[in-house]
Amino acid sequence: MQRIVRSGRQNEKEKKTSALDQLQISILEGKKEKKSIKQQRIGQFKEYWDKTGRDLIEIKDLKDPEVEMINYIDFLIEQNSTSANIVENVSAITTLFKAAGLSEQKINGKVLKQVLKRTRAKIKQPIKESTSYSINTLLKFIELQADKLQTLTEAQFLGCTFISIMAFCTLRMVEVLRADVQQNEDNSWNINTSMWKGDDTDAEITFRPLVNQSICPTFWLSKWLNRIERQQLDKPLWWLKRTNKPATEEFTSKSIHHVMEQAGIENNPTVTSIRAASITKAFSLGFTKIAIDRFSRHSDSSMVTLKSYDKNNNDEVRREISKL
DNA sequence: GCGCTAAGTTGTCCTTCGAG
DNA sequence: CTCGAAGGACAACTTAGCGC
C-alpha cells in the first residue's frame, strides 16, 4: 500500500519538474506571464539581482547559491520585510534556482537553515488556548428541532442529522458523506464508511438508541430515510429531493454552518470544530487518553489534541491547582 | 443558487536530535 | 540503543469566492 502511495508521489514530482522547465524557460527569457504570487517574489528578487549588475542567465553558473540566498535575505531584512515575506521569498527563489538547474543540496544547506530559524519562528502559529464552544449548545438546539421536524427545510434537516452523527462518533464530514447506513434487528444502526486519512481503513460504527432520543443519531437517521423515501438502498444515503442528486460537499458544509449559526454559535467556526468540541467534552468528563484515542480514532492523539483540540482544559487544570 | 477552483487549514508520515 | 519530541513535507479536508 505504502509503496503504491510513494510511487504516486514520485509521479507528482515528475510532473512538477516538467512544470519547472517551463518556468525556467519563461523566467530566463524574461517573459511575462500571469502574475502569480511566486512571480511577484521573483520580481522582487530580480530587482535585487539587477542592482548587483548581473543578468538572470548567470544564475545557472552560480558557484554558491546558499551564500547568494543569505545575502538576499540580508537585503530583505534591510528593507524591513516581514518574516512571512522572507520565508516565501526563500521558497520562491529556491524554486527559481532549482529551475535553473542548481542542485538542491547546494541551495538548502545547514547555514541557510540556521539563518532562517529565527525568521521561521516568528511566523509559526502559536498553540492557542482559545476556548471552544460547548457541544451542549448544539445538542440542545438539535433537541429543540426534533419537535418540529415537519417545518425543517431539507438543508436544516441534513445539517441536524450530520451534527448529531458527528457529535457522537467524531467522523469527519466527508467520511459521513460517503457513508452508508443500515438498521439492525435490535434497533441499532450501523454506519459504514471508509477513512482516507489515518489508517486508510474502513470503519463500522454502531449506534444504539440513547436515552435522550431527540439528539440520538439513530432517531435522526431513521427520520431522514423516511423523508427521502428510501426503500432498501435504492438511493444514496444523502439523496436530496430538491436537486434529485446526492448532497455535495459544499452543500453539506453550508447546511451545517447554517444550523450552527441558528444554534447561536458565534464567529462561524469550522465544521471540524464539532469534532473538537466533542473531544473536548470527552476530556473534561475525565475519560482516559486511551478511551479518547479510540473514540476519536486518532493514532497520534497527544500532539494533535494539543494542537487542535482539548482547548478548554488548561483553564480547568489551573482552576483545580488553585484550590488549596 | 449552483458548481467549480484555488487558497487555507488540519492531520499523518517520516526523519532527526538529544536524553537516559 | 530506545524513546519521545519536534519539524518539514505532503496529502486530505474545508471554505471562500467567482462565473454562470
From TrEMBL:
Q: Which UniProt keywords apply?
A: DNA recombination
- Per the record, the domain of life is Eukaryota
A molecular function annotated in GO for this UniProt entry is:
DNA binding
Example GO biological process = DNA recombination
Official protein name in the record: Tyr recombinase domain-containing protein
